[in-house]
Prior knowledge:
By secondary structure, the chain is α/β, with parallel strands linked by helices. The protein has helices spanning about 1-10, 15-50, 170-180, 185-200, 205-215, 220-230, 270-275, 305-320, 325-340, 350-370, 390-400, 400-405, 405-410, 420-435, 440-460, 465-470, and strands spanning about 145, 155, 235-245, 245-255, 260-265, 285-290, 300-305. The protein has a five-stranded mixed beta sheet, sandwiched between helices. The chain has a two-stranded antiparallel ribbon with strand order 1-2.
Amino acid sequence: MDEKRAELEELNKEQLIDMLVEMRQQLDQLTQIVQKQATRIQTLEDQIAKNSGNSGKPPSSDGLGKRRQSLRVKGQRQPGGQKGHPGTTLVQVSEPDYTIVHKLVVCPECAADLETIAVQGVEKRQIFDVPPVQLEVTEHQTQHKMCPSCQSLVKASFPSDIRHPVQYGTRIQAQAVYLNNYQLLPIARIQEFFSDWYGVGPSQAFVIKATQSLHTQLAQPLARIRTHLKQAPVTHCDETGLRVEAQLNWLHVVATAEASLHGVHPRRGQKAMHDLGILPDLQGCAVHDGWASYFQFTNCTHALCNAHHLRELRFITEQYDQTWATDMAQLLLDAKHEITTYPPQQNSLPPDRLAHYTQRYTTILAQGLAANPPPPQPPTQKRGRPKQSPPKNLLDRLQKYQTETLAFLSDFRVPFDNNLAERAVRMMKLKQKISGTFRTRLGADVFCDIRSYIDTARKQGQPVLQVLHDALLGQPFCLSD
């Protein structure tokens, strides 16, 4: 130590200054390295901490080791039917198809003969079951006759849908389409089902042809669905990735409580939304998760999904321990609950209550922004915005889209979340898990069109199997004008 001190004392002022400048530069470099490492560690910890309860990750990604807490608030009611609920218990019918009488011929108490004793009453119990299932074969015969006038051998005509000596009927075709496009079974399992159920296993080509035959009948129903969605006061939009021909594509969904439209596109953003053809003509409100491409459509208003916000706010609370996130989540939940207390004929919050929530929102935002100042400008200018922390990114979005976040308060037609669209895209994920990806683009397009038809029919209270059968007969179900 004394030797180093002696060396420094021998240096002049300029040499000392140079040494300090060099040490300052080294310290700055070390500080930057430490900051980068700290940022990287925080990013990795954030990735590990994310699950389906505090981010947009699907539940399937949680794994067995992660336990997530649901955003749903525990209610006071027990699971199952509630008091006063009518229920759906089987009820005996007045005229059963079959009746089996169990005669009383011997007294169970004393073994006396009761064969000739008159019956004083009966107790009835009924079993509801299905008969053994088997195919029903209908033979069509056309008559041949010799015309006495022209001496020609003439034949009667078969119905237009009977083209082969042996073929499957429209009901079994409808079942194949139902199992493949609604229950999402792979074609091989559909063959096994028919083999076990009916004793015959149609080929894969039969299932594909039945699907294509039904698809040719859907032009008018799909046109009606598009018209309905464009005119709807509120629509829900979402998108999710899927693979077509081994390439990443995107499923886009636009839906209301009455109808759904699915479409697959190579792109995720604005071009895909234009090609789907709904958002460019939409005049109402589009509810979505905040994907930037949606905001490019200025012909409609927008509302953001607050279920997404609640998950992100939970992540900020758990990972960064920032109280403003807890307060903001509570504000959204309080507002959601208050809406349920108003009568059905009311369509928005009273002005004083709307001002109350707006003021709370602004105050919480200010607290959050104070706790998360903008990042310092980097010493070298780089393209794009400086990288920010997850709390700051969420705060900026909540501030920029305050009107869209609180849209459900000023118009009760606008929902709190975007669950309606998310339920629709969830089926595509299930389809890929069960049946795999789409090997052809035509197959993906056909599936989306049929799924749009099925979902819309279900929302209209129509039996799915029946509307598929009707479409194969050339009489598909259509939305009313």
